[in-house]
Amino acid sequence: xRSNQRPLALTLGDPAGIGPDITLLAWAAKSREELxxxxxxxxxxxxxxxxxxxRLDVPIREIAxxxxxxxxxxxxxxxxxxxxxxxxxxxxxDSAAVPVVRQSIERAVRLVQRGxxxxxxxxxxxxxxLYGAGFAFxxxxxxxxxxxxxxxxxxxxxxxxxxxxxSVIPVTVHVPLRDVPRLxxxxxxxxxxxxxxxxxxxxxxxxxxxxxxxxLNPHAGEDGSLGSEETEIVVPAIEAAxxxxxxxxxxHPADTLFHAAARARYxxxxxxxxxxxxxxxxxxxxxxxxxxxxxxxxxxxxPDHGTAFVIAGTGNASPxxxxxxxxxxxxxxxRAEAQR
Length: 340
What we know:
This protein has helices at 19-28, 30-33, 44-54, 69-72, 98-113, 127-132, 140-147, 180-183, 186-204, 229-243, 260-263, 274-285, 320-338; strands at 8-11, 38-42, 60-62, 77-81, 120-121, 158-162, 167-170, 210-214, 247-252, 268-271, 290-294, 300-303. The chain is α/β, with parallel strands linked by helices. It folds into 2 domains: 1-155, Isopropylmalate Dehydrogenase (3-Layer(aba) Sandwich), CATH 3.40.718; 156-295, 3-Layer(aba) Sandwich (Isopropylmalate Dehydrogenase). The radius of gyration is 20 Å and the shape is globular.
């Protein structure tokens, strides 16, 4: 079955957060947004209750197989049911929901692995809630890589935040800032550059993407006077990437890399740590940014925001980032299939 005849697999996310809200709002906007068909993996009862709370007239239909979703999508929001979830109160996270949250992610991976879904789009989860229930992975991305492992070897996932204004890729992600210098290595930076270059070609049609790499320290180390990481780690990684024919520049001072003229000179910025990448990105693309995981054997996108418990069930959540994540997942999977 061709990619555009299969649905996207949309995970439940934390049911007490805004995942149900934005799922309902995205489906309700399908006529004007031209959304690709998707199927939610989760609890129909949660969606019905949230639709009632938000006063949304969204018909919800449980299905037995993902193949039913595309034909049903214009009439109702299709749900592949996952049982075991007790009553959910919007805005009140409960660790008892974690087994269902995990099942939703796992089922999405299995659907895309066997070709029943074209890509995965994940609703937001709460890391603190997951950790409280014994979740052993730093986040969604690492768990997806674990589920995608073959012969015991997991792929190297790379997080990219993308929008029309800017694309950024942090080399280290959800780690304390004090640990970043210890975790940064030449091999890690090089692997991040290599995966980014490959998948920007595979999924975004950039034949030889231009990647700008930041330094770690202020002024990119100021020739070693403000730190040695640039000369000892970052520059060797860049040189190794250039030796493989990749189009890489840097290390650039992060404080001059994100104004309009600078952004016009590269396709994506490779940054050394989370906030170095996400602070400028969310300043420029808070509403329409999409989280993409590169390096996986399937397409995965996600809204670029969290669970927002404080506004869950209030009607104040925007589905824009989810809508963009759904559209991008479909476009990426189409491009990947066209290259086969």
